[in-house]
Amino acid sequence: MPTREELAVTVRTVISDVLGTDPADVREHTNLMEDCGIDSLELMEIGARLERVLRLRIEPDDLTRARDVGHAIDLLRLRLDRPV
């Protein structure tokens, strides 16, 4: 299982790939909806890519209920600790 830091790098990289930004621009406190203007299709793409990379089933609520990138990382970490 990846460390939280490794998971954070993965999540930031996937988000930046989908949004076409630099991973350094995606921080723990970044709110994808408010700060990046992400739409539902982009969020679904992020979820699908994370599922492939992490080999983990991600429920849509796992990403939509996240307040910011850091919260999404924590939610995914919990999912990795207790796979469904």
Please describe the structure with a list of short key phrases separated by commas or semicolons.
single chain, 84 residues, mainly alpha, Non-ribosomal Peptide Synthetase Peptidyl Carrier Protein, Chain A
Your description of this structure?
It contains 5 helices and no strands. The chain is about 65% helix and about 0% strand. The chain has helices spanning about 5-20, 30-35, 40-55, 60-65, 70-80. It has one domain (about 5-80): Non-ribosomal Peptide Synthetase Peptidyl Carrier Protein, Chain A (Orthogonal Bundle). The protein is mostly helical and about 80 residues long. It is globular. Helix 1 (about 5-20) crosses helix 5 (about 70-80).
Q: Which value, in Å, is the CA radius of gyration?
A: 11 Å
Number of strands: 0
Q: What would CATH call the homologous superfamily?
A: ACP-like
Low-confidence stretches: none
Tally of DSSP helical segments = 5
Report the helical percentage: 55-70%
Shape: globular
Q: Largest beta sheet, briefly?
A: none
Order of helices and strands: HHHHH
Output the CATH class name: Mainly Alpha
Q: What amount of the residues lies in strands?
A: under 5%
Task: Summarize the entry for a quick read.
The protein has 84 residues and is mainly alpha-helical.
Question: Helices, strands, pairings?
Answer:
Blueprint lengths: L3 H16 L12 H5 L3 H15 L5 H5 L4 H13 L3
